[in-house]
Design a protein that fits this description.
single chain, alpha+beta, 3 domains, 10-stranded mixed sheet, 8-stranded mixed sheet, about 50% helix, about 15% strand, elongated, transmembrane helix, cell membrane
């Protein structure tokens, strides 16, 4: 230990007194490692972010009450909608007792005509372009929702006070006695857990690979320093320990820089939102165990990586033997990590399903890490073998190839992080594409028939129904509106929808043909046959669920619902106005309207919402969608997409630092080339060639590994093999684009290094 302490102290002094070159190497290492540390700290904060977000959303959830109302009872009605394409958490509330329960972050329940809003909602109301929002919610703001009542700082959230809610079975509201979800989270099913584990591995392994590359910055200068130490009498062990001091110092500085990056990003995170997800700065708290693991493991790993790298270098008093011809890299041991990783994953084929089975997360994580890390281990061998057989070409290509042949390992390390990131992204893309159908449920709605559904649960007669339709038609972009009264019909225990509307509306609803006023239709689907004409029925109409007895006329016509109707998975009884007048149905019924509109305009949906709110702010407006996505699956998909973008940005910035460090080490050869008359354009093209060759090889290897790994994971879920080649091409292109952009950004530095002053040495 005394020897280690003495030699490390010597290495630190050599860095401190090594002049501008040593400090430049230390700075580049600190920045490169710091970028990786910042992302690792962000990953260590994910458990806290998810926990805090779930706690806040569960605390404001609805605890539906049973029994008689109490002094704390509240009627509530969700009115979730959109504003400028982002979700709005809206809830109408009405107190039933003298001391109504209040949701988290709210000091008192708003009364009729009042509302309590989130800070971002208030800012949108006060903004110059907030006219549509102010018109949609003509309420008086009486309070602001605190942080404990919001899912994130940029959430649009509002509680609207009302006195028109009713809590019957078919009423427009439900009752609660206290806020907070009583049911615990069931967690993730095995397939979704597999996706999450793969996503974490695909995000963090590239970061670890780059950090391992960053601690080797300045290796050539350290090797020359070892030769000088050998010349004054130091043995090889001493020189290696001394050389590892610079890597240790760079890792420690990287921890400080990374913490600074993390804290700076923490201050800015509340200004960002992605797919309606935003995060409070206080939520970004790294898990203590993971943070300590990063703080302790990174310096230790830096020293170990340096010692392992120095085993291939023989620093002697008269020079560094590394510059002579070395043995060719061997393949067999580089195949061990991916083969062992696949050996851990392949036996799990067919054992991971949504409905059953369990996931051994440790075994799966180990297998994924070994396969992805094995990609980085295989890349140097692949680059060496390919460039060793290359030759000929122009001057630019020849310069690049000779440089790669002299140091193929350095070129492979440069692109190893992006290679692993692309391999993981392709595997993730393949797994997502294969299992997504299990988390997407059809709504049996046809967006081609209508683009929005408007629901007014007030009991309205034909005149009010026509007024609602006319108000919606005045909204810019609306082409047609079909408004009808709705209720429920039962034949025994079999239920269906009751619809009252004119013939044009009935055609839009179910695609019936040959309609005339006075007709009655019974429609169904292949799975739900239509009710038989002449059947005795029970009708439920209005908010109070009035029960009416009625027999379907024997003259009613039976039809199969059109495949292109708006809502295609329900049996129904359809009545024209004259037929409804001859039935026991009251003229006033709740109203639904189908809206055909061009919603490609970003403000078209906002205008439609505002037009409905002019009639009544509690009217529901809903987009027509052909399918819905499981909420947890959507959250995981969004989180991994955010993480992928963050990793790509960090890898790109880190790659820029790596390339600049390598160019700095080559500044004298570049200046000599310029002194001999080599054109700047030739040198620039050689730099592009030197980057393009290992990038192409790395991406080819990434596609192979990603496709194989994705296929193995799909077999684990018992899903058929299917590859989204367009998505794979997009991921590969994004990785190549990042590398080419970084290379282009380094060209100005190349021009500066070609100046004659760069040939100066000591």
């Amino acid at each position: 230990m005394r020897r280690w302490a003495r030699d490390l102290a010597l290495g630190v002094r050599l860095v401190a007194r090594g002049g501008r070159g040593a400090w430049t190497r230390l700075t580049l290492t600190a920045v490169g490692v710091g970028l990786g540390v910042a992302l690792l700290l962000l990953a260590a904060s994910v458990p806290a972010v998810l926990t805090h977000r779930d706690d806040r959303t569960n605390a404001r959830d609805f605890n539906e009450a049973s029994g008689r109302p109490t002094d704390t009872s509240v009627l509530y009605r969700p009115l979730d909608t959109e504003y400028h394409g982002e979700g709005v958490y809206a809830l109408a509330v009405q107190a039933l007792g003298a001391h109504p329960a209040v949701p988290p972050g709210v000091s008192r329940l708003p009364g009729p005509g009042e509302m309590v809003v989130s800070p971002r909602f208030r800012a949108a109301l006060d903004a110059p372009d907030g006219a549509l929002l102010r018109e949609r919610y003509p309420y008086r703001v009486v309070g602001t929702i605190g942080d404990e009542g919001l899912s994130g700082p940029r959430e649009y959230s509002v509680y609207l006070g009302s006195d028109t809610l009713t809590g019957s079975w078919r009423g427009n509201a439900q009752r609660l006695d206290r806020w907070g979800s009583p049911t615990p989270d069931r967690g993730m099913d095995p397939v979704l857990l597999l996706v999450t584990v793969l996503g974490i591995a695909a995000l963090l392994v590239p970061v670890a690979v780059f950090v391992a590359t960053a601690v080797r910055f300045g290796s050539e200068a350290r090797d020359r320093q070892q030769a000088a130490l050998r010349l004054v009498g130091a043995d090889r062990a001493t020189t290696r320990r001394t050389a590892s001091a610079e890597a240790l110092l760079g890792a420690l500085a990287g921890l400080v820089v990374g913490a600074g990056f993390f804290l700076a990003g923490r201050r800015l995170v509340e200004l960002l939102s992605f797919d309606d997800i935003s995060v409070f700065a206080g939520d970004l708290t790294p898990d203590p165990v993971l943070a300590v693991l990063v703080a302790v493991g990174l310096p230790v790993a830096a020293v170990l990586i340096t010692l392992v790298a120095l085993r291939r270098v023989a620093a002697e008093p008269l020079g560094v033997v590394r510059r002579s011809t070395t043995r060719r890299r061997r393949l067999w041991w580089r195949l061990v990590p991916p083969v062992v990783g696949l050996g851990l994953l392949v036996p799990l084929a067919g054992r991971v399903t949504r409905s059953g089975g369990s996931l051994d997360t440790a075994q799966v994580a180990a297998g994924l890490v070994l396969v992805l890390a094995g990609t980085a281990v295989l890349l140097p061998w692949l680059v060496e073998r390919v460039v060793g057989r290359m030759g000929g070409g122009g001057v630019a290509r020849l310069l690049a190839v000779r440089r790669l042949q002299a140091d193929s390992g350095g070129a492979a390390r440069t692109v190893s992080g992006i290679t692993v990131a692309v391999a993981g992204a392709i595997a993730l893309q393949t797994l997502f594409a294969g299992v997504a159908h299990g988390y997407e449920k059809p709504t049996h709605q046809d967006p081609r028939a209508a683009q929005a559904i408007v629901t007014d649960n007030r009991e309205s007669g034909p005149a009010q129904r026509a007024a609602l339709a006319a108000g919606l038609r005045r909204s810019t972009g609306v082409h047609a509106v079909y408004a009808f009264g709705h209720g429920a019909v039962f034949v025994g225990d079999d239920g269906g929808s009751l619809v009252v509307g004119d013939c044009a509306t009935l055609r839009a609803y179910a695609g019936v043909a040959g309609c005339a006023d006075g007709d009655v239709f019974t429609v169904g689907t292949d799975r739900s046959p239509a009710f038989r004409p002449g059947s005795a029925t029970t009708l439920l109409v209005g908010a109070q669920d009035r029960e009416l007895r009625w027999r379907i006329p024997a003259t009613a016509r039976t039809a199969v619902r059109s495949a292109h109707s708006v809502e295609g998975d329900d049996r129904a009884v359809l009545l024209t106005p004259k037929a409804a007048a001859a039935s026991p149905l009251p003229p006033a019924m709740p109203t639904t309207a189908y809206v055909r509109a061009d919603l490609t305009d970003p403000l078209a949906y906002d205008r439609l919402e505002t037009a409905a709110a002019r009639v009544d702010p509690l009217i529901d407006v809903m987009r027509v969608s052909g399918g819905s996505v499981d909420a947890k699956f959507a959250t995981v998909r969004t989180g991994l997409l955010i993480g992928s973008i963050a990793v790509l940005l960090v890898i790109g910035a880190s790659l820029l630092v790596t390339v600049l460090e390598q160019l700095r080490a080559r500044r004298r050869p570049l200046a000599v080339l310029a002194a001999f008359g080599t054109r700047r354009g030739t040198v620039g093209r050689s730099v592009l060639w030197q980057t393009a060759i290992p990038v192409l090889l790395g991406l080819a290897l990434a596609v192979l590994v990603g496709v194989v790994l994705g296929g193995v994971l799909l077999r684990m879920t018992a899903e058929p093999l299917w590859f989204d080649w367009s998505g794979i091409l997009g991921v590969t292109g994004a990785g190549a684009g990042v590398v080419l952009l970084v290379t282009a950004l380094t060209l100005p530095a190349v021009w500066r290094m070609m100046r004659p002053g760069a040939m100066r040495t000591e």
